[in-house]
Each structure stands twice: as C-alpha cells, then as structure tokens.
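Onboarding guide, step 5: your first structure request.
Type a short instruction followed by the sequence, for example:

Predict the 3D structure of this protein.
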Amino acid sequence: MLSFTLSSPVKAPLSHIKEHFTSDLLLKLSPPFPQVSLERFDGCKKDDQVILKINLLLTKLTWSSLITAENDTTEEWYFVDEGVEMPFGLRFWRHKHRVIEVNPLHSLIIDEISFDTGMTFLNYLLFPFLWGMIFYRKPLYKKYLSLIS
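The system replies with structure tokens like these:
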C-alpha cells in the first residue's frame, strides 16, 4: 500500500468551502484527460455514494466510492471516500478530504490518499498518475473556492 498527502491553502472560511464541495466542484476538479462524467453524487455524508464514468477513448471504466466517515466541527470538516468499484487494477482506495480553518479568512484543504493494487510494482507505476490527479486540484481549489484573490 502507498500513501501520500497534499495540502492546498484557500482564502475562504471552512463554512464556505464545505458549502461548495458539490458535484459541480467535483467535475471542475477532474483533469481534462481522461474525460470524466458523473453518474451519481449523493453528497459528502456517511453512506453517500459517488459514481464516475471514466472515458478512455476505447473503453469506459467505472469508479464508484462510498463515503464511510464524516466529521464536522468549527475547526475542521472531513469526509472519507473508499473505493467500491475501481479501475486501473486498484484493490483499495481511501481518500480523506480534510478542511481545516486556519483563521476566519483562510483554510487548508488536505487530501490524504492511500491505495493498493496488491502488487508493489504496480503501486509504484500508478503512484505518479494518482499523485498528479490530486496535485492537479491545487490551483483549482483556489480558483473555485477562494473568496479573496
């Protein structure tokens, strides 16, 4: 299993970020390739489901996740999505989405990812792609969630 964490500062309070963590944001955070369509988005609460279709030109793959945990305080909000049906040979996927309010005007979005294919070599082969998929979000979090330029 491999894990990584990426942090993105955003100029907005936690409440604003939480309110805008929607299906629209999820689609805006998706890279241009492969093209992704949203089949289902229940939300970010425990037992909600998210189902994506990934178009790889010759084939379409399903990525289905279940929200397995959520916590909400005045200082931090997080939810965890875990893979149910995953492409790319993934056997395990866990993504903890954390938002920590640094002060009333600034928050930190933290993506904590753990994944496993069952094969060390394949884990390391997929790592740059999966890391890049999350890293791609950093400027988009700022663009779509910041209240202050």
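Each response can be followed by summary notes, for example: The chain is about 25% helix and 45% strand.
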